């Protein structure tokens, strides 16, 4: 958009010339005599235009970035939201005209009152129209935008998170709620992989289909017949669908997650979750614990970390009531919590 800086520069120069001309109105003394008034006006306008040119050199870069961001946000708006905002603006302007005509003869009436009422009406009707933008989708040709249905608490599944398969354990542990949504174009991608000549791709595709069968048996799984012929890349379709449904996106694709977050789409990454809940201490780590009692096996001592994790220490009974450095041997995760097995550190 190389034309944006030039347009901004011209607008700033015109504003400078106009403000300089207004100086003659605000300060009549600058007009001089009858013969010099035109000359002074020309000089002031030229000075204002040149001042605007100087100012534009500093202002056009940040203003250009702001305008480009604004244009990009408008381009990403769905047609039904644009339609809804337009209808809301029209209604607010019509009601503002009627209201101002009724109140124009009131003694307290002022042009500022008209501006205030128009602004309040515009905010109300535009907000109301955007909240009910699905209603305005019926005025748009079905070919221009795909139809979406209301789904309670939707979570859209990406191809890689389906093939990963860990989502099954996550659902069985009841840490994930809502309706799982599989777009039809994702299902087609899995079918394409399952029929691929490459054995590795074929195995990935078959695994993805098997995971979907298991998900269908344990939770609500909705296959959504949604597509947008104007968008070619699958990742872009996922982001657009998430925006349409106000849904969260389940994906292990780090780059897709970054792109989605830049477009205000929430992303649930199973890899990030696994990192967050991984074991705090790994085999070989040395920790200092206070051995409080004897264990069930002969010679064992038992200690507890600050978070309540039990540490079973081999040959730790002899150090009961003492602080001791121990070396972590292994971690075991059970339904009741994590347990650490360790041995006393030898010098």
Automatic annotation (TrEMBL):
It comes from the Bacteria. The keyword Magnesium applies. The keyword NADP does not apply. InterPro entries: Nucleic_acid_metab_PIN/TRAM, PIN-like_dom_sf, PIN_dom, TRAM_dom. PROSITE patterns: TRAM. Residues 280-341 form the TRAM domain. Keywords: Hydrolase, Magnesium, Membrane, Nuclease, Transmembrane, Transmembrane helix. GO terms for molecular function: hydrolase activity; nuclease activity. Its cofactor is Mg(2+). CDD domains: PIN_YacL-like. SMART domains: PINc. The chain crosses the membrane at residues 7-29, 82-102, 108-130. This is PIN/TRAM domain-containing protein. It comes from Deinococcus cellulosilyticus (strain DSM 18568 / NBRC 106333 / KACC 11606 / 5516J-15).
């Amino acid at each position: 958009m190389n034309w944006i800086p030039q347009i901004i520069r011209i607008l700033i120069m015109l504003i400078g010339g106009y403000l300089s001309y207004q100086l003659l109105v605000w300060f009549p003394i600058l007009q001089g005599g009858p013969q010099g008034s035109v000359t002074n006006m020309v000089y002031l306008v030229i000075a204002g235009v040149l001042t605007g040119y100087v100012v534009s050199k500093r202002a056009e870069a940040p203003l250009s970035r702001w305008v480009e961001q604004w244009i990009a946000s408008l381009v990403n708006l769905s047609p039904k939201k644009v339609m809804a905002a337009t209808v809301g603006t029209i209604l607010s302007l019509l009601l503002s005209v009627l209201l101002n005509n009724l109140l124009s003869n009131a003694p307290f009436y002022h042009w500022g009152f008209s501006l205030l009422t128009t602004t309040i009406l515009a905010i109300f009707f535009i907000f109301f129209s955007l909240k009910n933008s699905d209603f305005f989708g019926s005025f748009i040709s079905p070919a221009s935008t795909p139809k979406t249905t209301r789904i309670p608490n939707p979570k859209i599944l990406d191809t890689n998170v389906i093939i990963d398969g860990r989502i099954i354990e996550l659902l069985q542990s009841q840490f994930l709620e809502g309706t799982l949504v599989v777009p039809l174009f994702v299902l087609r991608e899995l079918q394409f992989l399952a029929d691929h000549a490459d054995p590795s791709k074929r195995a990935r595709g078959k695994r993805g289909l098997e995971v979907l069968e298991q998900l269908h048996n344990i939770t609500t799984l909705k296959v959504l017949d949604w597509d947008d012929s104007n968008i070619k890349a699958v990742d872009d379709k996922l982001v657009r669908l998430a925006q349409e449904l106000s849904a969260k996106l389940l994906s292990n694709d780090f780059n897709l997650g970054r792109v989605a977050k830049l477009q205000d789409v929430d992303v649930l990454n199973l890899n990030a979750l696994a990192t967050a809940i991984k074991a705090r201490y790994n085999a070989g780590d040395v920790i200092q614990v206070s051995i409080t009692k004897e264990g069930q096996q002969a010679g064992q001592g038992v200690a507890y970390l600050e978070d309540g994790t039990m540490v079973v220490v081999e040959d730790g009974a002899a150090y009961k009531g003492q602080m001791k450095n121990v070396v972590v041997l292994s971690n075991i995760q059970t339904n009741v919590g994590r347990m650490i097995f360790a041995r006393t550190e030898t010098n």
